[in-house]
Amino acid sequence: MNIVVLLAGGMGSRMGQDIPKQFIHVNNIPVIIYTLLALEKHPEIDAVQAVCIEGWERVLAGYAKQFNITKLRGIVPGGATRFLSTKAGMMALGKVEDDDVLIVHDAVRPLVASDSISDMIRVCKEHENAMTVLDCADTMYMRQSPDSTSQVVERAGLVRGQTPECVSGRRMREMYARAAEQGVEIDSISALQVALGWQIYFAKGSERNIKLTRTEDIDMFKAMLATERDEWLK
Fold first, then answer.
1. Domain assignment present for 143
2. How many domains does the chain have?
3. Contact by Cβ (8 Å): 203, 120
4. Residue 89: which of 197, 167, 153, 178 has the closest Cα?
5. Nearest CA among 138, 6, 21, 153 for reference residue 73
6. Rounded to whole angstroms, how far apart are CA atoms 158 and 173?
7. Taking CA atoms, which of 98, 122, 131, 181 is between 20 and 30 Å from 216?
8. Please, are residues 120 and 130 in contact by the beta-carbon 8 Å criterion?
9. How far apart are CA 102 and CA 6, in angstroms?
């Protein structure tokens, strides 16, 4: 099975709103529903386990029913950190098979691309993990003080990591057992695996897969929803 652990456990303080950013309405639809609809429509996604900010579980369940989200199998409260929220979502899955693909995705990345999900699942089946990435197009610098630098970083050796990211069921069990033994808690499952000695394999990311962090990101999301790509663009 291919199962998504959907992280919606944060308040999103940088957004500066009175409600969690995943529940902000854009065109009368909550952000998290856009994300769930993308997962609902993907033919390779079998189920979704949501990790929700505590106190909003019933709200999410109501929205899921309203928008006919049939793949949502459960909702659990998030933890104090992303690491703990992700682990709570993984543990809520119960028994998983060794070759199951367990996908972690942010609820506030509503424009996740279908082909990115498919490529990530393919890579994970070959290597037991995958992370969607993008090349760095901008000139990169090493910050050497809060407001200055004198060092350029060669961008050809850098990538930008996104969610979704994933592990096999077997790797998930090994990962959390090894993390507990070593006392390691890192938010990203890809960064966690790197810290524990594993290599991470790349899958195709998307520039449209923006993370809604600030109010300007909401404006960009609304513009993307209203824009269709010209037919002549490849």
1. no
2. 1
3. yes
4. 167
5. 6
6. 29
7. 131
8. yes
9. 10
